[in-house]
């Protein structure tokens, strides 16, 4: 396994895009999650907010008028001065006015969302790895302006053969040797791909690695080693790393008819004559 990377996130232009008036970050700068790092000037944004606000006020006025008219019609209907169909018409007018209020408020909320999108905000805490725009540029919606990297926890990604993957399991300890660092670092196997890579017989596996002091960087090469135990082919002995308590009794020879769960009697070892 020889590829390394941290958690990455890109921050971009939201809404409908516009002119990038400021971008106050440089590569290598550390930022906080939610920190405003720049602004985008969106054409006619202020006038659109005012227009949508006026539409909301007008819709509320229309609703109030419809409700007053319906209340009056209910009093007239109680005295049989108007027909039932006229009362239903005024009730429908109230419902239509409420729908207009909801539509106007939704339109205003969308415009306010565009106003929030005018701020370029850091989606995660991390370090600016790359800046991909400059102030005064025209940017489009969803265009990436910079890339952040969180180095607090890294991942080592690589491949193992299909003949070996069955011996691995998520959570296994992994020794990771990173270029430029003489001492191996402890990691854990966090993911095993469910299928081999197309055209190969290799399975992608991922090792998680804590990096609280940020000594390592995304993109460094590393070698990951999983110790599965040793076997001495000459003597037939196998090194047991875990799973057996101290003093446990094991079979020193092969018994073909012995099955797991079958009753067995332990005979004390006879003294040599």
Q: What labels would you give this structure?
A:
four-stranded antiparallel beta sheet, Helix Hairpins, alpha+beta, 3 domains, 2 helices, 273 residues, eight-stranded antiparallel beta sheet, OB fold (Dihydrolipoamide Acetyltransferase, E2P), Elongation Factor Tu (Ef-tu), domain 3
CATH class of the largest domain: Mainly Beta
CATH-assigned fold name of the largest domain: Elongation Factor Tu (Ef-tu), domain 3
Low-confidence stretches: none
Mean pLDDT: 81
SSE sequence, one letter per element: EEEEHHEEEEEEEEEE
> What Rg do the Cα atoms give?
35 Å
Shape: elongated
CATH superfamily of the largest domain: Efflux pump adaptor protein, beta barrel domain
Number of domains: 3
Quaternary organisation of the protein chains: single chain
Q: What is the tally of beta strands?
A: 14
Q: Give me the number of helical elements.
A: 2
β-strand percent reads 25-35%
What structural class should be given to the helix and strand makeup? alpha+beta
- State the CATH architecture of the largest domain: Beta Barrel
Distance between the termini: 57 Å
Largest sheet: 8 strands, antiparallel
Query: What is the percent of helical residues?
Result: 10-25%
Structural write-up:
By secondary structure, the protein is of the alpha+beta class. It folds into three domains: about 60 residues, RNA polymerase II/Efflux pump adaptor protein, barrel-sandwich hybrid domain (OB fold (Dihydrolipoamide Acetyltransferase, E2P)), CATH 2.40.50.100; about 70 residues, Helix Hairpins (Orthogonal Bundle); about 80 residues, Efflux pump adaptor protein, beta barrel domain (Elongation Factor Tu (Ef-tu), domain 3). The chain is built from two helices and 14 strands; from the N terminus they run ββββααββββββββββ. Strand 13 and strand 14 form a beta hairpin. Helix 1 runs antiparallel to helix 2. The chain is elongated.
């Amino acid at each position: 396994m020889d590829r390394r990377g941290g958690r990455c996130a890109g921050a971009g232009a939201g809404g409908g895009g516009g002119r990038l008036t400021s971008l106050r970050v440089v590569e290598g700068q550390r930022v906080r999650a939610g920190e405003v790092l720049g602004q985008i000037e969106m054409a006619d944004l202020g006038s659109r907010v005012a227009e949508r606000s006026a539409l909301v006020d007008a819709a509320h006025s229309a609703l109030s008028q419809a409700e007053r008219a319906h209340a009056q019609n209910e009093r007239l209907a109680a005295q049989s001065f108007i027909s039932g169909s006229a009362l239903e018409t005024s009730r429908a007018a109230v419902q239509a006015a409420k729908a207009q209020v909801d539509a106007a408020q939704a339109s205003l909320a969308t415009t306010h969302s565009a106003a929030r999108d005018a701020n370029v905000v850091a989606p995660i805490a991390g370090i600016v790895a790359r800046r991909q725009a400059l102030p005064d540029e025209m940017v489009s919606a969803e265009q990436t302006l910079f890339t952040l990297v969180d180095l607090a926890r890294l991942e080592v990604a690589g491949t193992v053969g299909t003949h070996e993957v069955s011996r691995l399991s998520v959570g296994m300890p992994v020794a990771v040797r990173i270029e430029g660092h003489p001492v191996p670092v402890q990691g854990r196997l966090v993911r095993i791909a469910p299928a081999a890579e197309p055209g190969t017989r290799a399975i992608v596996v991922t090792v998680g690695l804590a990096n609280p002091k940020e000594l390592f960087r995304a993109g460094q090469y590393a070698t990951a080693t999983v110790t599965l135990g040793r076997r001495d082919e000459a003597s037939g002995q196998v090194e047991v790393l875990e799973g057996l308590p101290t003093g446990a009794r094991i079979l020193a020879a092969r018994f073909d008819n012995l099955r797991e769960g079958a009753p067995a009697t332990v005979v004390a070892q006879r003294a040599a004559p």
